[in-house]
């Protein structure tokens, strides 16, 4: 009989864990994309500098 009382609470905890995992995953993906964009911006700036040097030289 005790299982019938624990099962709804256990189900709620599982749903809460899944929800927390999804939130963590979204935040992690957004941070990774921001870091990737910063690196790509730095690469782009360096390529612009090299292109300007070739035009002048």
Summarize the structure.
The protein is mainly α.
List the topology elements.
Blueprint: H1 2-56
Transmembrane segments: 6-30
Organism: Psychrobacillus faecigallinarum
Protein name: DUF4083 domain-containing protein
Strand content: under 5%
Could you tell me the number of beta strands?
A: 0
Please report the distance between the alpha carbons of the first and last residues.
Answer: 85 Å
Which regions are unreliable across 5 or more consecutive residues at pLDDT < 50? none
Coarse morphology: rod-shaped
Radius of gyration, taken over Cα atoms and rounded to an integer in Å: 25 Å
What class would the helix/strand composition place it in?
A: mainly alpha
| Number of distinct helices | 1
Helix content: over 70%
Main sheet overview: none
Strand and helix order: H
Description of the structure:
The chain is mainly α and 57 residues long. It has one helix at 2-56. It is rod-shaped. Keywords: Membrane, Transmembrane, Transmembrane helix. This is DUF4083 domain-containing protein. The chain crosses the membrane at residues 6-30. It comes from Psychrobacillus faecigallinarum.
Defining key terms:
57 residues, mainly alpha, 1 helix, 96% helix, 0% strand, rod-shaped
């Amino acid at each position: 009989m005790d299982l019938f009382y624990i099962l709804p609470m256990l189900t709620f905890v599982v749903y809460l864990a899944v929800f927390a995992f999804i939130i963590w995953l979204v935040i992690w993906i957004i941070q990774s994309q921001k870091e990737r964009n910063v690196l790509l911006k730095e690469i782009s700036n360096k390529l612009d500098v090299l292109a300007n040097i070739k035009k002048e030289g």
